[in-house]
Amino acid sequence: MLRLFGEVQTYAWGKVGRDSTVAQLVDAGVDDSSIDNKTPYAELWMGTHAKAPSSVVVDGTTVPLSQHLQVHQELMGTAKSEDGQLPFLLKVLSIRKMLSIQAHPDKVLAETLHQRDPINYRDSNHKPELCIALTQFEGLCGFRPLEEVLGHINKYEEFAAVLGADIVKSFKQEMTTAGVNGQERLRDVLAGLIGADEELVSSQLTLLSNRLSQCGSDELTTVEECFLRIHTQYPGDVGCFCLFLLNIMKLLPGQSLFLGPNIPHAYISGDCVECMACSDNVVRAGCTKKFKDASTLLTMLKYDPKPPKEQLFEPEIDGHMKTFAPPVKDFKVQAIELSSGEQQDLPPESTPRILLVTSGSGVISLNDKEVRVSVGCSFFVASQQHLAFSTQDEQLQCFVASTSTVQ
After folding, report:
1. What is the pLDDT of residues 358-396, one digit of tens each?
2. The 3-state secondary structure of the chain, one letter per residue
3. Between β-strands 7-9 and 88-95, what pairing exists: parallel, antiparallel or unpaired?
4. How far apart are CA 289 and CA 234, in angstroms?
5. Is the pLDDT at 101 greater than 70, yes or no?
6. C-alpha pair distances (Å), 290 with each of 2, 11, 140, 282, 287
């Protein structure tokens, strides 16, 4: 088990200074850290992705993790690769400002996009990802039930005006005559929204914002309150209207979302642990100044309306451990939470793992060795290592990422 140091990303949307969980973890886990109270600490990356590769301490010397694994491939077990690349990437995110409306391509589309446009799609891997809330967390995930979409079209004339009379009429007719088959019109609704004239979008957003701002806070619905907040962050951006199409998810600590290929989503606020295939492929369409690829997004998305409770991803529970194992081979995450005097075993696996302590302290027994761990510490764990976690008078929370056994 090697001490690991991740890389911080200071994206503008991140929480600033010590308000950020990322900053708190770095400050606690790195001896010579210096936190700037004006800097946004958005993400902490732990893995071998070339954009922000981690390092490990070997015999007192800090070396790139991928370099160490190239030389010592036996540490990777069945996940060994000549370039020392792990198949997964573990992150912590601290979100102050909403991220882009986006989706991630499947592997076939990722390869196509990379070949067609390597500047904007810099790698050829897919990017399924898992989000586990550390704090109260808010995001968008998947299309709303069709009845809710229709309700928003009827209620918010500004939204309907941007869509246009023909799209609104077709959607209403489809809902009336075909019921749940109205999902076939969701693509038309989203296409009409994203393709609308920018001046029309901006003017209608302003009208709706002004109208809702006249209401008292206790009169606003969840979507209206969220709309006003996001419009303040991205005035005039068509992504603000996407709130009327996508589910607003409010997660409690420990709840999770699995964002598989082609699922529309966006993170709004809060702190989370995130694990994904080792990739940085994103297709965006709103609430961002980065490259947008609306035509690709419209083609790739799954137009599958579901209520929020069906978007949640449930773990398997074993003692004090929750295992989040999405239906992909690239990764799974095990969350361990111990109160005073508790223990939890983690059996050996045929592939390596990355471990992060997010709160508290405790002891990890590895073969005949005991390692004292505390908040902010992270480690690379070689394959075939048995880990035993224990506490005495303290509490411990940690997350362990590895490849999955999904067939």
Report:
1. 999 999 999 889 999 999 999 999 999 999 999 998 999
2. CEEEECEEECCCCEEEHHHCHHHHHHHHHCCCCCCCCCCEECEEEECCCCCCCCEEEECCEEEEHHHHHHHCHHHHHHHCCCCCCCCEEEEEEEECCCCCEEECCCHHHHHHHHHHCCCCCCCCCCCCEEEEECCCEEEEEEECCHHHHHHHHHHCHHHHHHHCHHHHHHHHHHHHHHHHHHHHHHHHHHHHHHCCCHHHHHHHHHHHHHHHHCCCHHHCCHHHHHHHHHHHHCCCCHHHHHHHCEEEEEECCCCEEEECCCCCEEEEEEEEEEEEECCCCCEEEECCCCCCCHHHHHHHCCCCCCCHHHCECCCEEECCEEEECCCCCCCEEEEEEECCCCEEEECCCCCCEEEEEEEEEEEEEECCEEEEEECCCEEEECCCCCEEEECCCCCEEEEEEECCCCC
3. unpaired
4. 10
5. yes
6. 36, 12, 19, 10, 9
Q: What percent of the chain has pLDDT over 70?
A: 98
Please count the other Cβ atoms lying within 10 Å of the Cβ belonging to residue 307: 11
- Distances in Å between the Cα of 157 and the Cα atoms of 132, 205, 207, 229 are 36, 11, 10, 20
Catalytically active residues are 284
> What would the mean pLDDT of 282-288 be, rounded to a whole number?
94
Closest to 69 measured CA to CA, from 348, 333, 385, 382? 382
φ, ψ (nearest 5 deg) of residue 390: -150, 155
36 contact partners, CB below 8 Å, separation of at least 6: 17
Greatest distance between any 2 Cα atoms in the chain:
72
Contacting residues for 209 by C-beta, under 8 A, at least 6 apart: 227, 228, 231
Measured CA to CA, the distance from residue 35 to residue 89 in angstroms comes to 24
Name the pairing type of β-strands 88-95 and 43-46.
antiparallel
- The answer to whether 265 and 129 have CB atoms below 8 angstroms apart is no
Q: What is the mean pLDDT of residues 16-36?
A: 93
pLDDT mean over 197-214: 97
